[in-house]
Amino acid sequence: MDFTLPPLLTSLVDRGNGLLWGSVLIYLLIGAGLYFTVLTRGIQLRYFGHMFKLLRSSRQSNGGISSFQALSTSLAARVGTGNLAGVAVAIYFGGPGAIFWMWMTAMVGMATSFVESTLAQAYKTDHGDNTFRGGPARYIERGLGLRWLAVLFSICLIIAFGLAFNSVQANSIAQAMEQAFAIPTWAMGLVLMAVVAPIIFGGLKSIAKVAELVVPLMALLYLILALVVVGLNISDLPAAIMTIVRSAFGFEQAAGGAVGYAVSQAIMNGIQRGLFSNEAGMGSAPNAAATASTRPDHPAAQGFIQMLGVFLDTLVICTATAAIIIMAGPELMSGEENNGIQLTQMALSSHVGDWGGMFIAVAILLFAFTSVIANYSYGESNIEYLAGRRAPVAVFIYRLAVLAMIMIGSVASLGAIWNFADLSMGMMAIINLVAILMLSPVAFSLFHDYEKQLKAGKEPVFDPSLFPKLVNKVDPKAWPKK
């Protein structure tokens, strides 16, 4: 079944994506990331080791959601089709050089992730059940006083993550399982609905517990296999790296006279798929960051931990996928049908045998499954923000809609959905980036306060008297109540 949009709407979506991704977002994402990097004096490099150190004290949550669980939830959303199918799409359409621009997006995106996650913690509200809610909608309203913009962001997020992206993730699962195990797509859709339903009806704590268990295990298994592949082809590694770098700047295409076009395609596909994968600046991960009961008790702590999420997603897991594909050779990318998850499956099979395709099918099942439940959690937080006291009914309807989109995504061809999701994601990113640029002085003040205490040999503690406007209050519209 093909899912298509009306011609006029298709044209508008395509033009919107061309404008957003062809120029606006590229400059805004990279520019904001560089700005945050400079103003924090390279926070992602200076405090690289500190990110890992914080994880050791992040599991205690006093009955709420720990920093580690919040990181696992955000990684569950980040680590999905973007790491397997998305990398393949970037290489197919943008060449190996797209991977270099994915790396650059991640490097500057780490600083962006710190700022948006710190702000999410700073402006979060007590949900009244030992958990918190927050994210761009809250810091846009509380920090900037722009309720209408916060509402617009929430609507874009619900459309993109709660509905469109969950269809995309379900589609990737169904296609991979059909190719590897000949399981009908409709049957896979029913299985997904049956497994996802009890988790999302259990609420955000249930999602955090599942993410905490599944995400580290699935990432570790995938990385081990990637390291095995690299080990088997270690002599080809230098050439693969040089191919990525040369392609990124058009040196591979110089002889053909298409340097400008090749470089533009590498940049656009690398940044677009990089953002889709690590979500830095998009405004999605802050929804998970805000839920954490941080240790140390300081908003900046979760900012550091969420920086680690960007690093693990793109610079580690996406690079592993890129190595598998590029080391398999360019001949695999000759067929039009091999431009997504199938390319990754065929590449791994060429390295380790037929079971490689089956392994990727299982990997995408886990990666995309955890993305579905994490994407749902982002939507739930924003549904609650919009619905207020009517949240119980709105959340129930939203849950049913998510399950329906999982089924639709499993059986439909989703080229149009991909394009629509990209447009929604682009609009989210613009709103969020403008907001965090305007609120960046707050994040910088919190960072300097944290850094000052750390250099004094203290465990950083948030002092409400220094930031009276950021004291977390119980949301008067929170659901449920204590």
Description:
- With 482 residues, this protein is mainly α.
- Helix content is 74%, strand content 2%.
- It contains 18 helices and 4 strands.
- The strands form 2 sheets. It has a two-stranded parallel ribbon. Strands 2-3 form a two-stranded antiparallel ribbon.
- A hairpin with a 5-residue loop joins β2 and β3.
- α6 runs antiparallel to α14 and α8 (147-181) packs across α9.
- It is globular and about 60 Å long.
- The N and C termini lie far apart (47 Å).
- The relative contact order is 0.21.
- Residues 473-482 have low confidence and may be disordered.
Q: What is the rounded Rg?
A: 21 Å
Find the count of extended strands (DSSP E, 2+ residues).
4
Strand portion: under 5%
Global mean pLDDT? 79
Low-confidence blocks of residues: 473-482
Give the strand order of the largest sheet, numbering strands 1, 2, ... along the chain.
1-4
Notable traits:
482 residues, mainly alpha, two-stranded parallel sheet, two-stranded antiparallel ribbon, 74% helix, globular, disordered C terminus, membrane, cell inner membrane, Sodium:alanine symporter family protein, transmembrane helix, Na/Ala_symport
Quick description:
This protein is mostly helical and 482 residues long. The protein has 18 helices and four strands.
Topology:
Blueprint: H1 7-39, H2 43-46, H3 48-55, E1 65-66, H4 67-78, H5 81-94, H6 97-122, E2 125-126, E3 132-133, H7 136-144, H8 147-181, H9 185-200, H10 204-232, H11 237-248, H12 259-278, H13 285-289, E4 292-293, H14 299-326, H15 341-352, H16 355-387, H17 391-411, H18 415-455
Parallel strand pairs: 1-4
Antiparallel strand pairs: 2-3
Membrane topology: Multi-pass membrane protein
Subcellular location: Cell inner membrane; Cell membrane
Pfam families: Na_Ala_symp (PF01235)
